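Field guide to reading this record: the first block holds the primary sequence, the second block holds the structure written as discrete tokens, and the final block holds curator observations. Each block starts with its own label. This record concerns Solute carrier family 25 member 48, catalogued under organism Anabarilius grahami.

BLOCK 1 — SEQUENCE
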Amino acid sequence: MLDLTVASMLTGLVSVGVGAPVDLVKIRLQLQTQPVLAENFNLAGNGSVPLRSMGIQSQSMYRGPLHCISTVLQNEGIQGLYRGAGAMILRDIPGYTLYFIPYTLFCNWLNPDGNGTPHPCCIWLAGGLAGSISWVTATPTDVVKSRLQADAMQQRKYKGIVHCIMQSYKTEGIHVFFRGATVNAIRGFPMSATMFLGYELSLQFFRSF
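BLOCK 2 — STRUCTURE
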């Protein structure tokens, strides 16, 4: 269990190196049609006034992923691609730990005899439950990460992770950090169940040679 915990934490740390720039580009492209003048792009989804009625028009900043990357590098440097990486580390290290450990525990519980690889149905269920647990627990830091990544598209609103947390809590309350948790749980189940099942079945296939 100690080996599994350390391996999971290191996996989460390493994943940030590749995942942070990709995630930033995804966030920027998803939010680029929102007006630059909107407060933090209404990441919490609580805007109630129609933007057109305010005289604000949508504006596309990027033509695609490559253009987004080049623009960020030109305007913000290499550190711009890793904006929000600190929050991503806080999300992924415990997130991966609470991904692989529950999966292993659930597989052991569903296959108490420990005879060979668990049944595919057990793998599917264990993977889905592990995914839901991981994504729900990662929701608060995911909110902070997304706000920091989107914040750089306009005039800076947050100075860092702690400032983002304090400002978000001050203006929207504690519940802001759990918005989308239900969606994450629902999304995490089939996605993780399919991933773990594909992983285990692939191992079985290649080991059969």
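BLOCK 3 — OBSERVATIONS
The radius of gyration is 20 Å.
The chain has one domain: 2-207.
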